[in-house]
Design goal:
480 residues, alpha/beta, 2 domains, globular, binds NADP nicotinamide-adenine-dinucleotide phosphate
């Protein structure tokens, strides 16, 4: 029996675990550094946290949830959904909490991975699956003086729930997907809210709505109705992803919708100008909100567009030299998405380090398989993130491909699988050629490694990825 260790317990880990368990792989364990499952949906508890992909699509295809309370579910509900899926599929007993993986080394003699944990203990498995995702390491900006601040400060992914913004002067650094969700909440409480927005984003209206009792009954009694809604949302998102091409028809329509949303919600010319992006739509993640612009237009809110130059013990200094005295700073500055798996010291054949192999940016066949690292599988790996669409759809596709590789090992003829250099290089060349002419190459964004390579995103809609990963191609791998 092949023993399989999965690092993480978010949507990716659960997708793989369910897929493998259903295929008869029973020697499975999931190592989780925290004391609960859920990945980003456990960690990101800021006010208003939720998913900007509609829930019927942001769920596993085999686990529709007729009980979603609204079309765009909030964090708590999504977290409870993943917990229920893990329970139902028998994944919960496989979870090992408080197990932070710090290193993994391939042993060529025994064809096993030795996994080391933060308490120096080790475990040995035949197959190692990383499901740590792309957004698990909150990133604080390298702003001079950041450590000198005397008030309350925290990252949006580590929200301080003891902090009450009522009557306080609060600064928010960043205006991305997370900030857009919590700024309306802070704006309603703070005496003064100063938003440091380095770049504006395209923001579209969010067609959110609560599901009524009638919808829930319909989804439960006639599940096909929810399947139809899911299919409709999926089809729209596929077009949305295709529209992420400069000057495509869908792209032009989306841009019109976004700018009309801005003009309608922000009529004051100075603020309107600050919020108007000047780069191709889609280059940075397109955001959705009905409350963000009205919050910024409130009298107690300022938007500062000059860069943050320094943090002092009692405030933030902008690049124009103005000091903004505040009681609290919230950093909504995103995640260390580029250094894939860097927090784990992974050593493959011949002592090769994964960090060295990926020094110029991570790359992997189908985002999953890495040459020189046998029996290592990566879920939500390089070039599998989306500019539009449900990542869960992508995770399921990856899980199906991994399952086929592991079924071949389970069959007993082989003990190791490793992608060939040729297959991985050809795949990477193709993906990079497509990304070079994609909208993401037109501006600064978190999808790009400092080397210039776009390492996060899949270049296109989700169906082509699902098709490409549907059937394992044995010739792309060496089996032994
Ligand atoms: P983000 O999108 O990376 O945004 C970071 C923000 O911080 C940007 O506005 C960025 O400005 C700013 N920033 C970074 N360093 C700065 C500095 N030194 N000085 C001033 N500003 C700085 O981070 P996020 O909002 O946490 O979202 C990250 C990702 O998480 C999203 O793209 C998305 O994939 C995911 N997410 C998803 C949802 C959802 O609803 N599905 C919700 C939240 C997050 P620039 O734009 O100029 O770099």
């Amino acid at each position: 029996m092949t023993s399989i260790g999965i690092i993480g317990s978010g949507f990716g880990a659960v997708a793989v675990a369910v897929e493998l368990k259903r295929s008869g792989h029973t020697d499975l364990r999931l190592w989780e550094r925290a004391d609960d499952l859920g990945g980003v949906w456990r960690d990101n508890t800021y006010p208003g946290a939720g998913c900007d992909v509609p829930s019927p699509l942001y769920s596993y295809s085999y686990e529709p949830n007729p009980r979603w309370t609204r079309r765009y579910a909030l964090q708590e509900e999504i977290h409870s959904y993943i917990r229920k899926v893990a329970d139902k599929h028998g994944i919960t007993p496989l979870l090992r909490f408080g197990r932070e993986v710090i290193a993994a080394t391939w042993d060529e003699g025994t064809s096993t991975w030795t996994v080391t944990f933060s308490d120096d203990s080790t475990e040995t498995v035949d197959v190692l699956i990383s499901a740590v995702g792309q957004l698990s390491l909150p990133k604080l900006p390298p702003i001079p003086g950041i450590e000198t601040f005397q008030g309350t400060s925290f990252h949006s992914a580590e929200w301080d729930h003891d902090f009450d913004a009522t009557g306080k002067r609060v600064a928010v650094v960043g205006a991305g997907a997370s900030a857009v969700q919590f700024i309306p909440h802070l704006a309603n409480k703070a005496a003064r809210l100063t938003v440091f927005q380095r770049s504006p984003n395209y923001l579209m209206p969010k067609p959110d709505k609560p599901y009524k009792a009638f919808h829930k009954t319909m989804f439960r009694v006639a599940p096909v109705t929810q399947t139809v809604e899911r299919g409709g949302i999926w089809a729209i998102m596929e077009q949305f992803a295709k529209g992420l091409k400069d000057e495509s028809r869908v792209g032009r329509i989306n841009k019109k919708i976004a700018l009309r949303h801005l003009d309608k919600q922000v009529t004051e010319p100075t603020l309107n100008a600050k919020l108007r992006p000047d780069y191709p739509m889609g280059c940075k993640r397109i955001l959705f909100s009905n409350e963000f612009y009205p919050a910024l237009a409130q009298a107690n809110v300022d938007v500062v567009t000059s860069a943050v130059a320094a943090v002092t013990p009692d405030g933030v200094v902008d690049a124009d030299g103005n000091e903004h005295k505040v009681d609290a700073i919230v950093y909504a500055t995103g995640f260390d998405a580029q250094n894939f798996l860097e927090s784990i010291d992974i050593t493959g054949t011949g002592g090769r380090k994964l960090a060295t192999q990926w020094a110029d940016g991570a790359h992997a066949y189908l985002g999953i398989y890495v040459p020189n690292f046998p029996n290592l599988f990566v879920t939500y790996g390089p070039n599998t993130n989306l500019g539009g669409g449900s990542i869960i759809y992508m995770l399921e596709a990856q899980a199906r491909h991994m399952r086929q590789a592991l079924d071949r090992l389970k069959a007993g003829k082989y003990t190791t699988v490793q992608v060939t250099d040729e297959a991985e290089e050809a795949y990477d060349r193709e993906i990079q050629e497509r990304l070079d002419v994609s909208v993401w190459s037109y501006c600064e964004n978190w999808y790009r490694h400092p080397s210039g390579r776009i390492t996060s995103n899949w270049p296109g809609a989700t169906l082509p990825f699902a098709k490409r990963t549907k059937v394992l191609e044995p010739e792309a791998f060496s089996w032994s």
